[in-house]
Amino acid sequence: MTKEKVAEEVSLQERVAINNEIIIYNDDVNTFDHVIETLIRVCNHAAEQAEQCALIIHYKGKCTVKTGPIDELTAPCTQLLEAGLSAEIV
Q1: How far apart are the C-alpha atoms of 25 and 62, rounded to whole Å?
Q2: Model pTM?
């Protein structure tokens, strides 16, 4: 196997390893303020980033709010769910 082929396979494995996302879906229950405050607290978003995510969730129906390895997303996703948001890891 050539160096290029090995590097390509390692690069592909790295991309697969961090290709998980937490997605929040729109609902008719949570307020913009609640979503924004929860994103700031749980996902460490800046206020502007959290506000933009809340708007995307409202107008597009969903938004990816955090990406990374599955083991780093499980706890934040659980916290989002406990806060009453509709979230999942994909």
Answers
A1: 4
A2: 0.80
Query: Per residue of the chain (90 residues), what is the pLDDT tens digit?
Result: 666 665 666 555 555 556 899 999 999 999 999 999 999 999 999 999 999 999 999 999 999 999 999 999 999 999 999 999 999 999
Q: Which two tokens stand for residue 21?
A: 């996302």
Tokens representing 70 are 């599955």
Q: Sign of dihedral through CA atoms 30, 34, 38, 44? A: positive
CB 36 within 8 A of CB 54: yes
Report the alpha-carbon distance of residue 62 to residue 41 in Å, rounded.
Answer: 19
**One-letter amino acid for residue 49 of the chain:** Q
Closest CA to 63 of 27, 29, 23: 23
Residue type for position 1: M
